[in-house]
Specification:
By secondary structure, the chain is an alpha/beta fold. Helix content is about 55%, strand content about 10%. This is ribonuclease P.
Length: about 575
């Protein structure tokens, strides 16, 4: 044995010398992965030549050449009988967008491609069925609807909104209202809601059918779905309100008190009680003034809030989350206290204001700033005190100063202060109070952190826009930036007129075009400032407020939030 080891030590065997060093296992895996990726990039499926041809045809929009390539591929005995799923989809998409002047029968070709796909056992996707429905809808809308309606049953695929759009467009072109409504019903059963293009189609087909009730229904669905409308939708509305059928729709008499009450319940933007008034409509494209006054009929546009039912649901959801994250006894105690003390016009985020722009050497918790905001609010609301929410840890320190103690005792004596207990997050308290009491909230907090993400409410942005009051200071005096005086969204007035804002890409409200829609003599300047969801609208912002808006933007650019979380 020893002789063998000695021989090997003198000269390694030929086999051992010929083998190169073995690379690490991780390197081998990487090389294998890269080789596989290279093969996939080169092949593009079982028929790489067809893939290259389809890509070229798609680029040129040449459906005829693409179908010729498909026919060659499936008739070649040496080529795979089954194409890749993405090749079928690419071909169907090309057929759906084909120019019919150069390729007059795309539907027949699409059916042939789809039949081959199923026979080859290639699994269709939602995009497959949608492309097939799109190309089929132009000549056979009923067949296209069946494709979409049975997508789930036959292929286990959930339709998307884009699956229904070509079918709805086909029934719109045919003027077949009942089938268009059936498409919407199936859409709803699939858990989908129409957006502006689909609603424009449903409005148009309802106008063609002269169905005033359906037009009214879709006007409100449009109002609930979009803020502003595009040119196509605007033209559909102009056509309807210029029709004889629209002039005949409506009632000559109605209960004005009932209508006003319904507007308040619905958040200020609509009554939803049907067409009011009779006679021809006038439609004009106008602009609105800074105060929300229509440039044509002189009606004052409303600042639309979420409705009362949504407000209650919102308050309940905030309370439920707060009770999960706060000490239940503490928050329930606050809820009970708030039930007995409801007469507030504004809730004040005390820490946000007292810490505003205090990130300098001598800065601290400024009760002077907080008092300035309280003074400004009392001036606006005839001496009425707001409710200030502050964490109790702040109060203990502030009471050590005599002047601070005097302010705090004054606020307490007038019911203007609620101190949140140790271990609590005051955000839950001031947010819940503002929602529950349906009043204003004074804070510069953008409400974007995790607490507000938990709410997940679709109407939270609208609520914030309507209720949040921002602030800054000018020579020690608080200057408040009230919510916008009106909302750029579809509105239905108490006299039956409508105002529909159109899209304005610049975002400049001064140049936004509105459709002012009313019957002759039905709209007049309101005698008083409108009330929205129980909250009186403020007068338009003055020059000082405009300067404040600029100052607040500068503050935001400097990342000065003025808020540290109180939780101890």
């Amino acid at each position: 044995m020893g002789g063998l080891w000695a021989l090997m030590a003198q000269k390694p065997p030929l086999l051992l010398r010929a083998l190169p060093p073995r690379p690490p296992r991780s390197s081998r895996r990487r090389r294998a992965t890269h080789s596989a990726m290279a093969r996939r990039r080169g092949s593009k499926g079982p028929n790489p030549d067809l893939s290259r041809t389809l890509t070229d045809c798609t680029r040129r929009g040449d459906a005829a050449a693409a179908m010729a390539a498909f026919d060659d591929a499936v008739s070649d005995p040496d080529a795979p009988t089954r194409l890749a799923a993405h090749q079928y989809n690419q071909l169907l998409h090309l057929l759906a967008t084909a120019d019919r002047s150069s390729f007059p029968s795309p539907a027949a070709a699409a059916r042939r491609v789809f039949d081959h796909m199923l026979q080859a056992g290639a699994p269709p996707s939602e995009a497959t069925i949608t492309s097939l429905a799109r190309v089929t809808a132009a000549s056979a809308a009923d067949e296209a609807f069946q494709l979409v309606a049975t997508m789930k049953e036959k292929h286990g695929l959930a339709p998307r909104l884009r699956s229904y759009s070509p079918v709805l467009a086909a029934f719109r072109r045919a003027g077949d209202a009942s089938k268009a409504y059936a498409v919407e019903a199936h859409m709803a059963a699939s858990g989908l809601s129409p957006e502006e293009p689909e609603l424009a189609a449903l409005l148009d087909v309802s106008c063609t059918a002269g169905d005033a009730d359906k037009v009214y229904e879709y006007m409100h669905k449009l109002r609930q779905t979009v803020d502003c409308v595009g040119e196509e939708t605007a033209q559909v509305l102009e056509a309807w309100f210029g029709s004889d059928r629209a002039a005949m729709a409506g009632k000559a008499e109605w209960d004005a008190a009932e209508v006003k009450h319904a507007i308040v319940l619905n958040g200020g933007g609509s009554h939803q009680l049907g067409w009011l008034g009779t006679g021809p409509w006038t439609v004009q494209r106008v602009t609105a003034g800074a105060d929300g006054q229509c440039g044509s009929c002189k009606c004052r546009l409303a600042c639309v809030d979420i409705d009362m039912e949504e407000t209650q649901r919102f308050a309940d959801s905030v309370a439920a989350l707060a009770l999960e994250r706060e000490t239940k006894a503490n928050f329930r105690r606050f809820q009970e206290w708030l039930e007995e003390n409801k007469e507030y016009e504004a809730i004040v985020d005390g820490a946000n204001i007292a810490l505003y722009q205090q990130n300098f050497a001598e800065g601290g918790f400024s009760l002077t700033q907080l008092d300035a905001v309280i003074t400004e609010l009392r001036g606006r609301y005839h001496g009425k005190w707001p409710l200030v929410i502050l964490h109790n840890k702040r109060i203990a320190k502030l009471m050590e100063n005599l002047s601070n103690r005097h302010l705090i005792e004054t606020w307490r004596a007038n019911g203007a202060l609620y101190t949140t207990p140790s271990g609590s997050n005051d955000d839950w308290y001031w947010l819940y109070a503002a929602i529950k009491l349906n009043c204003l909230l004074v804070t510069n907090d953008e409400m974007r952190d995790h607490i507000f993400e938990l709410l997940g409410s679709s109407f939270f942005p609208k609520w914030k826009q309507r209720h949040r009051v921002k602030y800054t200071f000018n020579k020690g005096k608080a200057v408040l930036v009230m919510p916008p005086p009106y909302s750029s969204e579809i509105q239905e007035s108490e006299v039956g007129s409508w105002h529909v804002p159109m899209e304005e890409k610049s975002g400049d409200e001064r140049v936004r075009i509105w459709l002012c829609i009313g019957r002759t003599g039905t709209c007049k300047v309101p005698d008083k400032v409108p009330t929205t969801n129980g909250v009186v609208q403020e007068v338009p912002p003055n020059e000082a407020s405009n300067r404040v808006r600029q100052s607040l933007q500068e503050d935001k650019a400097e990342s000065i939030t003025g808020k540290r979380k109180d939780r101890e």
